[in-house]
Design goal:
Layout lengths: L1 H18 L6 H13 L2 H24 L7 H39 L2 H7 L4 H38 L5 H11 L2 H27 L4 H35 L1
Length: 246
């Protein structure tokens, strides 16, 4: 386990160093932006919308006990932007992007394509890892903003048509609940989560061995490790941001 952590830290350090030195593989970077960003858009839209909708439905019934149904917008906006948006987007990326990266790089390892890159004088980390990490780190906040937006819209639909809350009252409650510190917290978390998810997928993929069966194991390990780290990193980043921002 210690060796695994050491190799992961070395991979992250090397990737960060290569990200600021030539050569840059811009075409690969743009391809990964499209694969990670546009490819994950549908699942993020659905997840964010139904999360906001069910959150409004459940919280509306609970707030009724205190006569506070009009404040449902405040609860949804604070929950989605500060916590649920970044975490659920991270989990969706772990399931889709983390597994895909581990399977793709793992397949290249077991078929000796990575060895061929080294033989041709190309560093696999610079060619395969850096574009994916940069794309994942940049696209995770964008996807989180999309999830937050559709989540608040989903909550609005339920609040207006199911809970019979006035639309103007809902949006007033949403804006009153938001502070600039909350927005910063919701925007900073996805950068860290995106980096962690993609770097774990690359690390697991590069360590793949055992043929096609090993690729399957690597994919499973990448999803499990990424999902657990999303929750763990979210806690530590939240704790750090609370001490810095609030």
């Amino acid at each position: 386990m210690v060796q695994e952590v050491q190799e992961y830290v070395q991979l992250c350090g090397t990737a960060i160093r290569f990200a600021f030195s030539r050569p840059f593989y811009r075409h690969d970077f743009v391809e990964q932006l499209d694969s990670i960003g546009m490819g994950s858009l549908t699942v993020v839209l659905l997840t964010g919308f139904f999360t906001g909708a069910v959150l409004a439905l459940q919280s509306g019934m609970t707030l009724d006990q205190f006569g506070a149904r009009p404040f449902v917008g405040r609860l949804i906006s604070a929950s989605m932007i500060k916590e649920l948006g970044p975490v659920l987007t991270g989990l969706m990326l772990a399931g889709r992007v983390g597994s895909g990266i581990a399977a793709e790089i793992g397949s290249m390892v077991v078929t000796d394509q990575v060895s061929a890159l080294r033989a041709l004088g190309t560093d696999p980390i610079r060619k395969l890892v850096v574009p994916r990490i940069l794309a994942g780190t940049l696209m995770a906040p964008v996807l989180t903003i999309v999830a937050d937006t559709v989540g608040i819209l989903g909550g609005w639909l339920i609040a207006v048509y199911q809970l019979r809350v006035a639309s103007s009252l809902y949006w007033k409650s949403v804006t009153e609940a938001l502070y600039i510190q909350d927005v910063w917290m919701g925007l900073l978390k996805p950068f860290v989560l995106g980096f962690v998810i993609v770097s774990i997928g690359c690390h697991v993929g590069l360590r793949t061995k055992g043929g096609t069966a090993g690729v399957g194991r690597a994919t499973t390990n990448a999803v499990v490790a990424s999902s657990v780290m999303v929750i763990a990193v979210d806690f530590f980043v939240t704790r750090l941001l609370f001490s810095l921002i609030y």
